[in-house]
Amino acid sequence: MRRLALILIILVCQQLLASDGAEPTCVGTKGPVSLPIDGDAQSAFRMPSSIAWGDKDRIDLDAFLFVPMTTVRNATNDFSQTSLGGGGTGGFIVSLPGTGMEDLAPSDPAPDPVFGRIQLHMGEYVEVGGASGVSKLSSLTYPYGRNTETGLSLLTTAFTVAYAPVDWLGFGASFHFIYGQLKAKSIIGGGTAPLNGSPHINGVPIPGNPTYTDFLNLFQTGQLGDPATYVNTSNMTSFQVSGEIALSIRPWKNLGFGISYEPRSLILQDFQGTALVDARQTVALAINPLAPPIQNLFLATLPDGGRNGYLSQFKIKVKGIHTPETVRLSAAWWITDRILVAGEVAWYEWTRALAPVATLSGGNNRDLNFMIGNPSVVTSVKVGWSNEWVWSLYSSFGVTDDLAVRLGFNYGGMPVNADYLGDGPNSAIVSMTLTAGVGYKILPGLEVSVMCEYSPYCSIHSDGLPQSVSSRYANYSARQFLAHLGVGYEF
């Protein structure tokens, strides 16, 4: 109970970053290799200027199935889990009337090169996201386990304008509206905030005016322990905005280069919701070893004497969870009419994107409020993620006029810090992804694509730094698999 304020560590330390998140894979007409040459509605999210040279309207949709396989092994757990999740992305592109080649009859003159071509785009994408299935994890406080579950999603609605003043230069700018959802059920161990309330008996302070932390420490039995609290958050939502600018250069029709920049998102509303704190087991472990007269003395200091138990509903607010500042450099080359290769290097600034500060307030249990001694608890949560570089290579092969085969590879440094992961499994522990897929034009302008992503086994280890005893010297591992079904239609 002494470490109630660490409720907030669940909000970041066990969130999952799926490969469909900050680095979305798309399976549109040219798959993930269409940028920065005449990109589709999916790749416009990554490189807005890639659609500047398009001359047709189009729609691109992608549904995906996400299967993470994770393990955590430490002093109290030997746990493995295979979860199942899914979602989708989609967008459409339209040419501004009168600016595209499709508006001209064969005998008409070419469009005015000064005016150029303008494309408009709108799409919905999972920018950062992940979730874990229900896990029954144990700690020293909960040796028989409690169900845990976490989930984070930042959904971006993008509005883009792309402009090509000449046939070798393209500009793009987009506005992003971001809706965030956050939920967690977790066992929280270790601590950063003592119980600063001062015990009173019949309104009279105990001599020396000790805090509850001092009071309990005075009667400690010396036994090793790991005080933990069970927390269930719900209805946590956030609203944010961001944007992206991009430049594409096309020195030849079959070769293109692009650069794009997205700043760290601006928060309009912090994550806000409710949190149910269950400290019954925590308090029991703190006072049960005490002699009965000392237990009675402890209970006598509380406003309600422990008669209402140690469950409390709090309001919760979390600041400091953003989409990261991102820079991308891309190149795409049509070697022949049927062979396309592309590469990209991307940089993500996670250190400032994940710097949460959480506030608990308005607890409805008078005993817990009195022990805490403050109307609210403010906690800065240590995350320790590092910035990340991701290197990608992709290729597309036109087997026939209607059938295309696509391959891809990307590798990124692991930004996750094992010392702050907590006791739960985490699917963010992957560093390499292999992709393979096919696309088939079933009708003129209509293509159906299937793509699979696989991230091989990867593991990391924590040392003795975690404040939670149960998280020290732990081994975490993960693999993950994604299956995509995409539809692209030009009209």
What key phrases describe this protein's structure?
491 residues, Porin, two-stranded antiparallel sheet, 22 strands
Model description:
This protein is mainly beta and 491 residues long. The chain has a single domain (4-490), classed as Porin (Beta Barrel). The chain has helices at 10-13, 212-218, 280-287, 292-300, 350-353, 366-372; strands spanning 58-73, 78-82, 85-95, 117-131, 135-137, 146-166, 169-189, 200-201, 204-205, 228-252, 255-262, 266-278, 311-321, 325-336, 339-349, 354-361, 376-380, 388-398, 403-412, 432-443, 446-461, 475-490. It has a 14-stranded antiparallel barrel with strand order 1-3-4-6-7-10-11-14-15-18-19-20-21-22. A two-stranded antiparallel sheet has the order 8-9. A hairpin with a 2-residue loop joins strand 8 and strand 9. The termini are far apart. 47% of the residues are buried.
**Average pLDDT rating:** 78
Question: What is the class in the CATH system?
Answer: Mainly Beta
Helix fraction by DSSP (H/I, runs of at least 4):
under 10%
Question: What is the CATH topology assignment?
Answer: Porin
Radius of gyration: 27 Å
Q: Which shape, going by the Cα principal axes?
A: elongated
Write a compact overview of the structure shown.
The chain has 491 residues and is mainly beta. It has a single domain, classed as Outer membrane protein transport protein (OMPP1/FadL/TodX) (Porin), CATH 2.40.160.
List the helices and strands and how they pair.
Blueprint: H1 10-13, E1 58-73, E2 78-82, E3 85-95, E4 117-131, E5 135-137, E6 146-166, E7 169-189, E8 200-201, E9 204-205, H2 212-218, E10 228-252, E11 255-262, E12 266-278, H3 280-287, H4 292-300, E13 311-321, E14 325-336, E15 339-349, H5 350-353, E16 354-361, H6 366-372, E17 376-380, E18 388-398, E19 403-412, E20 432-443, E21 446-461, E22 475-490
Antiparallel strand pairs: 1-2, 1-3, 1-22, 3-4, 4-6, 5-6, 6-7, 7-10, 8-9, 10-11, 10-12, 11-14, 12-13, 13-16, 14-15, 15-18, 16-17, 18-19, 19-20, 20-21, 21-22
